[in-house]
Amino acid sequence: MSTNRTARTLVVAAALFMSPFLLPEPASAQTQSLAIGSDLTPGLSPRTLPVTMTNTAPVEGFVLAVMIDPTLVAIDDVSVVGSITESVGAELVVPEILAGQGFTLGVVLDATVPFNAQTIPIGTGQEIAKFTARPIVIVGVPTDAIFDFVDGVLNNPPLDNVIVEGGLSVGAPQGLGLTGGVLTLLVPPPDSLRIESLAKNSDVTGSVRILLSNSSGAVQGFVLAIAHDPAELTLEEITLAGTVTATVGAELIVDQILTDGGTLGVVLDFQPPFNAQTIPVGTDQHIATFRYSCENTIILPAPPLVSALTFVDGVLNSPPLDNVIVVSGLSINPGLVHGTYTCLAVPPPPVENTMFFCGPPNLTASSPSVIQGAIGETIDVCFYYKDVDSNIQGLQLAVCFDCNLNFGQFSIEGSILNEVGAEFVNFSVDNDPNDGDGCEFVAGILLDALPPFNGQTAPASFFPLLIGCVDVTIEPTAPCGQDLLIEFCDGVDADGTVELFNIAVIDFESVQDFQMMDCIVEVVPEVVFQRGDCNTDDKVDLADAATILGQQFFGVSVDCPDACDANNDGKINLADSVFVLMYLFLAGDPPPAPGPINPGPDTTEDTLPTCQANSSC
Asked: Three-state SS for 21?
């Protein structure tokens, strides 16, 4: 017999044993009662209702038997936590939820040695227990779910509602009042999914937020299916970065990018230990991001292009998907509020040959560049110029940047300007986001500034040539998964007082009317791994030595080849398996950092494929 069954039987036996010795009906008996509280709830949101007791004598135990309407609600929990029953030290508490019927609860205050005779003292309206009721249907009109005390119906053998005073049972025949409760199910405000409209310049990408308003209850999962006109837009990415979906811990994510739309399916709790994570009830909660680019760059004075973003059911994917949210295991078709993506016209490119660029080291394309980095990481942000027919005598940079970036030292080391012998190099940085003008950087470079004035210049070039680089640290405040803009902007004073502009000095003249290509820093997860953890199970042990051999001789596939390089010599071979075995069993050196002692990002450059990020930014 199970422990739960044994305990329940003891309570039932105690109640039956006491039945022949019921208390006589004192004059005050009618003042003793059990009562269930009442409440309201919209949609499928659960509510916890109290069970209270009024008693004129100390109570040594009690039995509750409560019936529900199984077409409207289910019972999720029955407990005495937080009640006077718990505070006085009840020693035997036996709840039992009877699916489709209701619940029973048997309590004996003093059931084990040393038998200290604890009781619930005389009182009025004392909370002795509570239960959580969950609606299982969404009603069209307010509907009452009734909770009634019932005698001789629930459990086996059937139980009566009684309180025990002086070793004797007091039930309804002895004047114990039994007052049921009501949970009124309300019609919830309509749930909705909304595409937040966005307008962006037609030469950059834009992130469109998908917003959830859910009043029916906490959301366990959802499906999105959003269409666009492929002649006008391209869907570049579907991401959960920075959303409530990512915050609560989605475990199953299936996205599909199609020519004419995109779909996303999410289950919040899909894997053990099944912690029941959900998106709570809320309004306009950011649950996903769809990132788009315009098919064509629109040049002023042409008007902007407004493109529709539309929720569609039964159209996208195979099999076709509908837009739904899941609440309490039920699929709900929410209201769908469509949006738009507006491609804004941009100024025409300058006709001059001179161009300034910003981007990562070793820039290879004459286009806006993305530099990736993790929070806390220091990266190089570099500046370039191109001029197809003029030699450059000097350069002046004026840059504004997102204050989630911290600009450090500027250097022309390794640049063409350093090669030809630039004689004046100076820079200034303003990293203060609260001084009223944002965060700014300026630099001035003059190639021939000192005697004997040899007239050195930077050469003309069809390709971007390096001016110099700044070491930039991504601040802890940086938004995860977002783009931080670095742009050329005129009229910048950094930490000085003179407003400076982007110029190139050509033939002793200041040239300003030229094209400038900005860049962005994309905040990405930090790649963290343990060298030697070849099977990527977050530890280094004998299985990793076996996996290294399997990869070498049996073609076993591994997710992180770089981690299999246990001795960090840039290749995977038998020596790596021996290295792991010596470390584990022969007091050998541990795998070089980042290893099992100090996991982290890999700073060693080699030709092995890099590992995917396994930590959030």
From this structure: helix
